[in-house]
Amino acid sequence: MKILIIGGTNFIGPVVVEKLLNARHTVTLFHRSSVNISDNCTHIKGDCGNTEDLRIAIRSTKPDVIVHMIAYFQSHISALEKALDNCPMKTVILSSADVYKGYEILVGLSEAEPVPVPFTEESPLRNILYPYRGRLNVDYAHNYDKIPVEQATLQSPLLNTVIIRLGMVYGKNDPNRRFADPVHKMASGVKSIEIHKDMSCFRACKCYVENVAHGITLAIERGQVGEIYNLTDEWVFTEREWLELLAKKLNWTGNIVVLDEKYHDMNTRQHFVLDTAKIRKSLGYNEIVSVDRALSKTIEWELSRS
Fold this sequence. Notes:
Blueprint: E1 2-6, H1 12-22, E2 26-31, E3 42-45, H2 51-61, E4 65-68, H3 74-83, E5 89-96, H4 101-106, H5 146-155, E6 159-166, E7 168-170, H6 180-188, E8 192-196, H7 197-200, E9 206-208, H8 209-222, E10 228-231, H9 239-250, E11 255-259, H10 277-283, H11 291-304
Parallel strand pairs: 1-2, 1-4, 2-3, 4-5, 5-6, 6-10, 7-9, 8-11
Helix pairs in contact: 1-8, 2-3, 3-5, 6-9, 9-11
């Protein structure tokens, strides 16, 4: 297949590109970056919010599938629709588990009681839009919301859409560096690491970048138009258990000290776990990298940064 990827130069993108190329697909990357992640794919410079830039890319590549990795705003979908010039296109949209009702409870946007986990693709979505307004100091935060993005794509007469809702992705080049603090502390030989009692029991879905890229590749190749798929790793640990796994990998013999005071940054009574039965049954997804190997590779990358 000929695949046009919008974005794709950071973190998850290069791993997806590698897997698509290994599967003998033809890949074109449409982006604003100066980074050349592969000599085996074509790069087209442009802005995903600019209809004419997108139109030029689509006309020149004539893709079978478009993968939008950076559809942060509804306007991104509008620009893509216009660029298609009334020609329908299979489109894979990367979304996020932050669309679920449980997210607004978790981060304190709502005082509602916690909702049950795991979240299926049919679980309730947030009532509160634009969840990062005033909370994140990044350019896109004010207007970011995957809910209107999803709605616009599913309602579009031109976008034959497949949606992938991702959990919290980690691994090489993770911009959030989810394990940075404990990895560097343990590697430095600190005697103890503190964790709040309620956070120590908190469970959230984390997923390794190579497994995520494998799932995205399956969605590109086999995903059914109009369907939504949750994508994350099957193993779900408490935050304390993650620390214990890291300690074992790093041969750290210090103590994990559980603090009695309440953790105030989020509502840890709301666990954040995804049900992935649908993508496993429908697309044959299974993890290709074990949690043991995933943590080893993540630790190696994290320590290489110091």
